[in-house]
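Q: Can I see a sequence and its folded structure?
A: Here is a first one.
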Amino acid sequence: SIGRVLTRQDARGAGLGYALMEQAVAAIYQVWGPQAIRIGAQEQLAGFYVKHGFKDVGKPYTEDGIPHLEMLRDA
């Protein structure tokens, strides 16, 4: 599972979140082999995950008062 991907506010825009996500996906593939990865993403951040190959695959839902999407990255 990939938990929340975040960086300090003053470090945003430097590509650190992108690098963290790439490392998380690489670690999953290294440990468990290439496979589909399913995540729940805040709706406002869907574009970030699309850049990493994730697609919106489910009905939107609300978690902690925040709209979320179910997203999937194929193996």
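Q: Show me another, different protein.
A: A second, unrelated one:
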Amino acid sequence: MVDCYAEDKIYQILCLGVKKQYYSLDSLAQKLGVSTRTVRNYIKQINKDLKGIAYFKNMRGKGFYLYIEDHAKFEERFKKISQQLYIMDTLQKRLAFIIQHLMTEDSNNTIDELAFKMNIGRTTLINDLKKAAAVLNPYQLKIIGKQNKGLYLSGEELNLRLFVIENIYDYLYSDYPLDKEIKEIVLQTSQSYAIESSSQEMILKFVTLMLDRLLTEHPLDHINEKYYKLLETKEFKIAKKMADLIEAELNIAIPVPEIIFITLPIVGRRTPANTKSMAEITITEEIKALMSFIIERLDSELNIKLNNQTLMKDIEYHLTFMINRLIFDIRLINPLLGDIKRKYPVAYKMAEVAGKVIEEKYDISVSEDELGYLALYFGVFIGENENREKYLRKVAVVCGTGRGTARIVVIQLQRVIGNHVSIDLFSDNEITKEILSDYDLVFSTVNIPFPLEQPLIQVSEIFDEAFVAKEVEKVALYKKYNLPRVKLKHSILSALMDEDRFFILDHNKDYWENICVIVDSLYEKGYVDVEFKKRLKEREEKGTTIFDSYIALPHTLNYATEEIILSLGVFGYPLKTVSGKEIKLIFLLGVPQHMKQDSSLLVKVYDEIIAIASDQKLINGLAMSKSYTEISRLLEHNVRGW
């Protein structure tokens, strides 16, 4: 294990040396806050590490001077050291030093002694210990201080190791002298079982930490009984093979708990990307049953039916490793989580629904990081469902400039709509209403002097491809579901609603009574079938459809029409439910049967409602609206549902 404190002092000495000055032993000791003997040891270490590159020499009557023999190599080494080492005034480095010190020291140190070793103030250390407590808490680890006895680290060895792996491994073990032969054992064994490179790196970390703790007499004596279930797995056999080879190489004995420890990164690895690795994995009946439960819950809660068999198989593979990680406390950090939540809100909502099923079946908590990775699969499902090219066969491009500029427009459009759509180019003086009537969509860089039946998208010669892609998606969706051309709007909710599906509700009535007001009106107007209210009641009894942000989304199948029926009810004063939640908006959805097989429009509806749920000002504005016109105006100006 690397001594963070010593590294910092060595780095400080090098920083002084590159100034090309002479330093007496006493002055160096004073600058570093250590004894002269310690300075001699540091200089001895530097001269050993930089042999053939640079060295300190003590010149009689002058002091120590840094002589550089190979400037290029010294610059490279110095740069590497400066990048790897943060000065001790960075919080994460101080926390790493504190944990390193407490996990390796046999004797306890007082706060004053530890502060002296770190060369920081007592108050700074006390504040750091408070922050360390928050970081350690999820791992059931504590730093405990007893008067006159000092500080010590309390907790299970396994939890300590998992904390190190997931938080400070690079600080403590980046330069650990692991034998080349051990690395080869780990990598070759992993490759023989088609384990991918990212997982190989993690296994190497576990092996390094295991050997360091075992060889420094900090063995894994006690682990929870649940980990012994791994003894019968294929992953344990892989770890056992590694352990046998390491035992022979180092002439040591590796106990079973230690082998279980290095099994964890194998059993909890990310889902492999290559086909060969996937072929080695068995999907159990338990995982297949879990997948079925998730499909049923997505259907009942969101009316979204997963019908892509290949994707479902991929999700089953993902669930296999995900469940292992959750059961055996292997945490994944998802650096994409924020982007996933922002860009794929419906996919993340689907992952939350799946997460609830997992929590119910296994009595384990599912982290947001894991939900984010699961959401990526649902994002693929949503993306494949859109298939906008299918509803666009021919498009026309009208330009008032030269052909070269017009071709630039066409090239950009091909990137947006693909090469399967036919694109015809026209100048503005050769178009007629009859000519353009033969196209599914018209793009134009100039004003068209006559009204068109076809959807028209105005573009400039160099346009925002992301914006145009959204507009094309909108047109394709309108064609797919035969939505009225006159309602081609920014907001899908606005496009799907009408004046007679807008309701001002009564906060003095309860939640179900207000829903009945909406449903009864819809039934009288022929929008929903006679059993709609009954199905809606059954759906509500299964679980609430009330969001945490003043929005309710009751929904069920509707057999009265092939179109999606969307209604909005608003409360000028919030409705308080028996559960204590407040409701300001009720979006009621009637979903046609065919949309269960193709949910692309439904996904757009959910997308927009989720966006509204994050905008408190818009929620309040909608709740206070007195007419559909006000609602439509607010949605058009505040929501981009496409």
